[in-house]
Amino acid sequence: MKKLMSIAALAALGAVSQAQASVTVNINTDFGGANADPTLTVGALDWTVGNALSVANPGEALAAPSTFVGQTFTTYAMASLAVFNNQLGKPIGGLNLNGINPATAYEWTFVAGFRERLTANAAPAGAGTAAFDLLGGAADATTNFFEIYFDTAVDANNLTGKGFQNGTKILSGHFISGDGGFITTQAPLMPPGTPVIGDLDGYINNDYAGLQTLTGNGSTKGIVVVDSYDANYFASNPKNLTLNFSSQQKLAFDQTDPAACFWTGSGYLGGAGNLAEGCANTIGTINGLNGTNFQLQADANSSFGINVVPEPGSLALLGLGFAAFGALRRKSIA
Questions:
Q1: What is the tally of structural domains in the chain?
Q2: Does residue 74 belong to any structural domain of this protein?
């Protein structure tokens, strides 16, 4: 299910998490739930396939012909949790996570925003390789945030892009560093730089019949400083821990629906767009080629580790390797 990228890009991504060792954290998965799941000893959080959207600065675009080295942009991402894993990466629960019984079901979700910069762009015509880094800085409600929510209503919806930032906020933080890359597919028997273009939505029903996209794969990693957490859920104190979050990005969408809307920390912004949801299209008719913003399918997995280089004044570090984020940068590639 995960895609591989170039060795050079993977080596760059690996540098982010070299200072982390695998550990476990005791988690009350549904604190206060009607039929509480047991406390789990968790080594990793495996997120469902979700969405990411890279948003251009005013007056700029993330379509391939308009991107340039040094260009900065903001990426937003979200997903719901698929399963809690142990230290060996094996599923261990929770029993009622994403359940169908409203009396006992619950969900975990995350929303994130961070600044990125295009550091290499070998795809001005559409196909090729792009690299980027994540611009760390102070926490900001709309451009630098990472939040996890617990909700007794299982209402996160990838098609609409809504329901990911409601319920109880149980962890928040901000990004301090990261990097990644994206490879846009070269069309066979065509001039160099000619991209493969396909339908944006290849998941079950095509909900965006008029929209197409560049195709390709990427990956992203980052480090997040945890600013606060709810001890009702994180039963063992996560102080001095990191969360290595690695994700793979892909186009076209084939494992989930492209989202119509994205949470920006203060409101919703359109991705693929749906006026019935109050969100206009911002990615154009060919995602990555003629729109302002760039949207990616993102598949993330995260594991806990020890923060061996703690940032002064921080409660913890959260290592986020979000492929989805890398995918967004791929958009920059476009």
A1: 1
A2: yes
For residue 1, is it within any domain? no
Going 145 to 275 to 272 to 70, the CA torsion angle's sign is negative
Amino acid at 293: N
Q: Is 251 exposed, middle or buried (0-12, 13-18, 19+ CB in 10 A)?
A: buried
CA torsion sign for 270, 199, 165, 265 is negative
User: How many residues belong to the chain?
Assistant: 334
Q: Which residues are within 8 A (CB) of 227 and not within 5 positions of it... i.e. 6 or more apart? A: 139, 172, 173, 174, 314, 315
33: in domain: yes
Token readout for 218 is 């990427």
Q: What is the pTM of this model?
A: 0.86
What is the structure's pLDDT at 94?
Answer: 84
Name the range with the highest mean pLDDT among 160-164, 184-188, 227-231.
Answer: 160-164
Name residue, tokens 């760059």.
12
For every residue of 233-280, DSSP letters joined together read: TB-S--TTEEEEEEEEEEESB-SSPPPSEEE-SSSEEESS-BGGGTB-
- The dihedrals phi and psi of 183, each to the nearest 5 degrees, come to -115, 115
Residue 312: CB atoms within 10 A of its CB come to: 4
CB 111 within 8 A of CB 79: no
DSSP conformation class of 324:
H
* Domain that includes residue 234, residue range: 7-333
With respect to residue 2, please indicate whether it lies within any of the assigned structural domains.
no
177 to 138, 239, 276, 280: CA distances (angstroms): 11, 19, 37, 31
d(CA 44, CA 178): 19
Question: Tokens 């098609």 sit at which residue?
Answer: 159
